[in-house]
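Backbone-to-sequence.
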């Protein structure tokens, strides 16, 4: 557990030790800023289900794999993501923690896109991103990845390294290793209030464990909880959406064989499932290997209050989600025998313009939130933007 601070003041307090918050803290500490980063420790809902009930705040980064690639939803997103990807190896080398697995990404879509999402192949071409392209019906891609399957109606593009996936908790550990090394302090606690003390007087940050810390500035990187727990005077415009992923367990032999398969982005244009994403088998804390697949579904809802969000994370997801996700996962791996299936709840945080919110919400308080379903891969760069606002805003 990170050490408890033996002081009650800091130049900057970062609220949230998720992917945006950990990145912001690292960039700030390496710039010489005296800071304390506060956030609850990660938990494993499968290993310690009782711990889930004890938690007051949750995070969708509490996971083992997130897709990363240069292909993105538009040029602005792509530039930020490319900045983060370009720094992955340096971050790994500096921290001694590996988190990036550059297995590539297979992108399947109808020619011209699916009518809901931008055409990914057009984006690859417009930005000059290295890729291989296979017309609909051309299955020569399957010579390399014979155990995957897609409809013959879909074109296939393969984006090679540095596309692949990142291990979110490992990436956060890398960020926090460097934060501590630069003199930053990490506090395992939950912030229950951020109070502005008056013009030029800074802020008081109150935690569940009873800490009261004063700071000149605050970075609020609390994800789906940004508008809750008295963290901000005036709520920011966020939309929360529930999301469920399915984990399909594979036997050790298949885990070894399929570990080098690429990640998948599959624009399936379905009424029940939309915009499928998937990783190859990854080892989870229980020692077993799972393929992870997620998508937008017709069952998703939009929670708007703290109690509803907490109940969503604490309660087992409805079997209806598995009934939707399991057949889709099996169809993508037609000859893989999955030995078990389970679902996990997530929440996606959106802004009206579908771009992360990195801005000064009130004097001295920077909000860094809303991955909009794609922020993980560029989190180091989004966090750097928040740090830059603290330093130069």
């Amino acid at each position: 557990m990170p050490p408890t601070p033996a002081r009650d003041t800091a130049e900057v307090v970062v609220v949230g030790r998720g992917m945006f918050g950990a990145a912001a803290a690292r960039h700030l500490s390496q710039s010489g800023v005296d800071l304390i980063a506060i956030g609850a420790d990660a938990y494993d809902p499968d290993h310690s289900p009782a711990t889930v009930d004890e938690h007051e705040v949750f995070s969708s980064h509490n996971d083992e794999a997130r897709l990363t690639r240069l292909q993105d939803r538009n040029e602005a997103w792509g530039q930020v993501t490319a900045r983060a990807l370009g720094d992955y190896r340096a971050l790994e080398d500096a921290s001694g923690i590996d988190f990036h697995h550059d297995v590539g990404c297979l992108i399947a879509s109808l020619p011209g896109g699916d009518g809901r999402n931008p055409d990914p192949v057009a984006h690859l071409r417009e930005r000059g991103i290295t890729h291989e392209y296979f017309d609909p019906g051309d299955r020569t891609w399957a010579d390399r990845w014979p155990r995957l399957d897609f409809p013959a109606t879909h074109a296939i593009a393969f984006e090679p390294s540095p596309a692949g996936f990142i291990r979110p908790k490992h990436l956060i550990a890398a960020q926090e290793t460097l934060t501590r090394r630069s003199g930053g302090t990490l506090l395992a606690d939950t912030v229950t209030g951020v109070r502005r003390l008056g013009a030029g007087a800074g802020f008081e940050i109150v935690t569940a464990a009873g800490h009261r810390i004063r700071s000149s500035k605050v970075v609020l990187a609390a994800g789906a909880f940004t508008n809750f727990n008295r963290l901000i005077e005036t709520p920011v415009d966020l939309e929360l959406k529930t999301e469920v992923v399915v984990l399909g367990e594979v036997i050790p032999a298949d885990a070894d064989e399929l570990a080098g398969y690429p990640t998948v982005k599959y624009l399936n244009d379905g009424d029940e499932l939309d915009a499928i994403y998937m990783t190859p088998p990854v080892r989870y804390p229980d020692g077993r290997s799972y393929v992870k697949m997620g998508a937008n579904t017709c069952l998703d809802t939009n929670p708007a209050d703290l109690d509803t969000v907490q109940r969503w994370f604490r309660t087992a997801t409805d079997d209806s989600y598995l009934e939707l996700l399991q057949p889709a996962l099996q169809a993508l791996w037609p000859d893989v025998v999955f030995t078990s299936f389970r679902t996990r709840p997530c929440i996606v945080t959106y802004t009206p313009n579908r771009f992360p919110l990195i801005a000064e919400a009130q004097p001295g308080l920077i909000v860094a939130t809303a991955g909009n379903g794609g922020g993980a891969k560029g989190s180091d760069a989004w966090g750097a933007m928040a740090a830059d606002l603290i330093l130069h805003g």
